[in-house]
Amino acid sequence: MIDEIKKRLSELKNPVSGQTFGSEGRWKHITLNDEKLIVEYNRDGISPNEKREIEKNIIDSLSDLVGLENIMVKTVSHQSQDVFKALDKSESSATKSPEPAAAPAQLKVGHGTIDKKKPVPGVGKILAIGSGKGGVGKSTFTANLALTLHRMGKKVGIIDADIYGPSMPMIFGKRDEKPRSNSEKKIIPIESYGIKFMSFGFFINEQDPVIWRGPMLGGVLNQFLFDVDWSGLDYLLIDLPPGTGDIQLSMIQNAHVDGAIIISTPQDIALLDAKKGAEMFKKLNLPIVGMVENMSSFICGHCGTEHHIFGEGGVQKAVEQMDLKFLGQIPLEIELRTGSDMGEPYMSQTRFKDRPVWKSFETVGHKVDEFFQPSPEQGKTGFFSKILGFQK
Predict the structure, then answer these.
(1) Which of 13, 97, 137, 346 is the 20 to 30 Å CA partner of 151?
(2) What is the pTM of this model?
(3) Which residue, among 382, 363, 377, 383, has the nearest Cα to 152 in the 3D structure?
């Protein structure tokens, strides 16, 4: 069967050039193990829209040989700038099946459509929170920033877009909740501690791995943006997965995102990926609110000594190099971790209000809000600084 698979794939046409993948030497690997097919091709010069078309053609051509759930498509590219240059090209015409009227809420699993950028109904500002690298505490930061803004009198929602590792249900203590839909067929977000949020974790078992291709994940994110009732929000925070891939591109292509925050720990290896994330947002003309240094230090609860476990001042140096605003440092506290694990996020507990972490989140929260809502004392200077890109 592998010979027939290779023959069909070699005849697959590149929608950009009209030539077959075989004649262009696009295929890098085609392997079949235990009925699991893995195909990898070179996507240089192929836009996200064209990539989706190619993946659909792969599935269509092999549907009688290999089941959809057994096909994994991977790509390699040596010219990632082609992706950015192609963002404004032709729109996808893929259609979605109608959503059932009955509750509970359902996800429409399939290839997402790419439309012109549009605002999310009922939302004031959309803020993307990315890291470029996993393991830097981005989800915990997002949840506690949302609670900080809520304490400032803002109405806040969160989209947990880290579909491979959704954690918001655990952080907010709602692991057993299942979203439902309203009479207008909109998904009703789950609410906890005054924060409305939606997560892929509500629709899968916690033990199940997510083995989906990028276009399918983009479709879920698109539904979380436009098929959820977010009415009445001042801020909608999007907790992005690590990296600079399809989910990030889908979000920025579809929704009018107002700004982005980059999260990094101080060490060089985290900053390397954080800088890539910042460059992606810049290339996509998305305003960067600033960078946050997470896990900046640990203060021993016994002796009071401050330890810079991951290095010191790395993010402050990086923002100077990249001409970005430094939003602040979030130190480590045991309660910050245990609160997330127990479903009682740190900034929901007023007993911590005199501690360094609490004060750090307040500092970051006020800077974020001032970015979008300049205070009177900032005057016209702050306004023009944002337009001209001089604000630090």
Answers:
(1) 137
(2) 0.65
(3) 363
